[in-house]
Structure formats: C-alpha cells, structure tokens
C-alpha cells in the first residue's frame, strides 16, 4: 500500500514513517515545514536506506493537495490510505491564537477529507489527542469517557476533527478510520537520527527539559504545585514515541471498511512533572534545573489512559519505560548541540 503521511516531517510523523517503511509499506511524506525541516526527511531516508517521495504542501491548499494525489496516480503508486498528523499542537499558542488553530487544524482536516473523497480514498488514521476528554471526572479514561468542554482551542480542534471524520464515515459506508487519542509522546528513535526538534521555545515538557539541561534554555518552570495530585504537579501519561509509531502501523493494518473506531494510546500510568524530573536524573545522571511557578492556562490536572481496547483489538501495548524514553530523548538532544 502507498500511505500518505501528512505532517510526515514532524515529530510523530517521522517516527511513524520509519515504522511504516520497516513494515513494508510505501510512504509518501507531505509537510509544509511550519514546525519541521528538510533534515527530517533526509534522516528518514537514511534510517530506512531508501528514497521516500516528499511533497512540500500545506493541507489547507486544496489545489496543491489534489495535485499530490494525482501525481501519485501518474507514478502508478496511487494513495490508498492517509495517516494525518499535520496540525499545530501548542496548547499555549492555541489560547493566544484560537482562529489560527481553527483554520489550520480543523480547516486543514476538512480540506484533506474533501480531496480524499474526490480521489475515492476511504481510509484514514487520525492523530487525535487525550485533550478531547477535557478535564476528566474519572481516571484512567477509556474511549467511552464523555468529551467535556475542551480546556484549550487546541483540544477543541481535535474534538472538531474527530467529528468531521466521524461524519465522513456516516456519509460513505465504505469509509474507515482509526482515531488515535494519544496521551503524551516523548523520546526519540534509539539511533538518535530522528527525534523531537520543535521550532522556537518548546511547548512540550521533555524537549524543554533537554534544552534546559543542555544550557540552551532557562531553567524549567514547573507550572502549578497546588494541584490535587500526590506532589501537587500535573500528572500525565508519557508514552515512548516508538511505541506510538508501532500503534499507527497496527491501526492502519486493522482498518475495516465502514468502521470508525477510536483508540486511547498510553501506558496506563500517570507520572507527575516532578516525577519526570526525577526520572530524567535516573536516566541520565543529570539534575534538571527548575523552579516552581503558578498554574498555566489550558492545563488539566491529571489524565492517563485505559488502553485496553487497543490491546484487545489491535494487539498493541506500550512496552518502553519512561526512563528509556528520557534516555533516548537526551541522546537525541546531544546530537543537536
């Protein structure tokens, strides 16, 4: 199968592209480099020791996107399925720029679905997020947990995109989708050839820690120490990106015509920010410089996953530990210094 990976030069997209290629799939990458660059594409090619087709396209550009689908037909390698990562993902930025997030994330997904319909592509794996659940009443959350009010415009776009895809399933009875609600991806490929390399100041915890330890950022601020958690800091479910990449391959290979299914992807264990700091020292032997601060708008208190559906239906389970993920993240960071 030829798989179009939107946002394929990004953090999760690049790792998934490698996992797809290693599983025997033909990969076509698409990215606009809003939070990535051509180095990621070259590094993917290096890891799989093969050429990979790449298109620099913004998924909001309907004409350019349609040309990609047509070009693959002309190459006798038509796109059969899409794994859709392309999106802006900063919670903080989404609070400051909600219209940008609605236009890029929701609008881009709408355009992608329209072009898929035009070319009769009926399979999609969507990069969703645990933010669709909002502030949960009970943890761990499973897929039956209700969507609460989104805590950020970013979370709202993930809810909206899931709605668009679910609607597509109802319109086309042969359409199939997997909505993958991940928790907090961290780490890097063990080769340290690809990893998380955000543009500007990192919004996610682990790259900020790595850059802070490397002396590239100020000390980490722990946002909130008065949450109703064991140590007062926010609790999340941190998942190795390679486990997450494996889940995308399994989700793709298990798509069933006419079926729209959601899956939580996490370890099933909650880890606080302060525990992450301690685990980083365990993984690397290095202290994380940090200070304690107030709460940050858009953050929820605690969430972790019940991923039993993914284990039962996809045969997937997270295997790598947070210490392993942090060691891989630091190994990757050292290649950037």
Walkthrough of the structure:
This protein has 337 residues and is an alpha/beta fold. It has a domain of 214 residues: NAD(P)-binding Rossmann-like Domain (Rossmann fold), CATH 3.40.50.720. 41% of the residues lie in helices and 17% in strands. The protein contains eleven helices and 13 strands. Strands 3-2-1-4-5-6-11 form a seven-stranded parallel beta sheet, sandwiched between helices. α1 packs across α8, α3 runs parallel beside α5 and α5 runs parallel beside α6. The longest helix is centred in the first third of the chain and has 21 residues. The mean pLDDT is 95.
Q: Which blocks of ≥5 consecutive residues have pLDDT under 50?
A: none
Helix/strand order: EHEHEHEHHEHEEHEEEHEEHEHH
Q: Please state how the strands of the largest beta sheet are arranged side by side.
A: 3-2-1-4-5-6-11
Please report the total strand number as a whole number: 13
Percent in strands: 15-25%
* Largest pleated sheet: 7 strands, parallel
If you average the pLDDT, what whole number results?
Answer: 95
Rg result: 19 Å
Shape, per Cα inertia axes: globular
CATH H level, superfamily name of the domain at 2-187 and 238-265: NAD(P)-binding Rossmann-like Domain
| CATH architecture title of the domain at 2-187 and 238-265 | 3-Layer(aba) Sandwich
CATH first level of the domain at 2-187 and 238-265:
Alpha Beta
Distance between the termini: 38 Å
Structural class: alpha/beta
Considering the chains and any ligands shown, give keywords for the structure.
single chain; 337 residues; alpha/beta; Rossmann fold; seven-stranded parallel sheet; globular
């Amino acid at each position: 199968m030829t798989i179009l990976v939107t946002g394929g030069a990004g953090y999760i997209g690049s790792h998934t592209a490698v996992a797809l290629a290693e599983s025997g799939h033909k990969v076509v990458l698409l990215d606009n480099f809003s939070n990535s660059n051509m180095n990621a594409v070259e590094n993917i090619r290096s890891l799989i020791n093969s050429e990979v087709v790449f298109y620099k396209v913004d998924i909001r550009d309907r004409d350019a996107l349609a040309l990609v689908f047509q070009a693959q037909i002309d190459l006798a390698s038509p796109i059969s399925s899409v794994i859709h990562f392309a999106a802006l993902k900063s919670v903080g930025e989404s609070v400051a720029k909600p219209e940008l997030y609605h236009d890029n994330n929701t609008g881009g997904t709408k355009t992608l679905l329209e072009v898929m319909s035009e070319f009769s592509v009926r399979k999609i794996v969507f990069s969703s997020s645990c933010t669709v659940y909002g502030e949960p009443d009970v943890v761990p959350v499973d897929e039956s947990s209700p969507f609460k009010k989104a805590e950020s415009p970013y979370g709202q776009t993930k809810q909206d995109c899931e709605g668009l895809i679910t609607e597509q399933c109802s319109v086309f009875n042969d359409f199939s989708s997997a909505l993958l609600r991940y928790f907090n991806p961290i780490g890097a490929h063990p080769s340290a050839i690809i990893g998380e390399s955000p543009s500007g100041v990192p919004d996610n915890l682990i790259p900020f820690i790595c850059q802070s330890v490397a002396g590239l950022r100020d000390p980490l601020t722990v946002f909130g120490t008065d949450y109703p958690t064991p140590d007062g800091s926010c609790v999340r479910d941190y998942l190795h990106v390679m486990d997450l990449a494996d889940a995308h391959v399994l989700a793709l290979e298990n798509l069933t015509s006419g079926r729209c299914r959601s899956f939580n992807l996490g370890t099933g264990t909650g880890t606080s920010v302060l525990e992450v700091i301690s685990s980083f020292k365990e993984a690397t032997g290095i202290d994380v410089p940090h200070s304690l601060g107030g709460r940050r708008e858009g953050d929820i208190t605690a969430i972790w996953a019940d991923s039993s559906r993914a284990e039962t239906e996809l045969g997937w389970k997270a295997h790598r530990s947070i210490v392993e993920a942090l060691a891989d993240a630091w190994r990757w960071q050292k290649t950037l210094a």
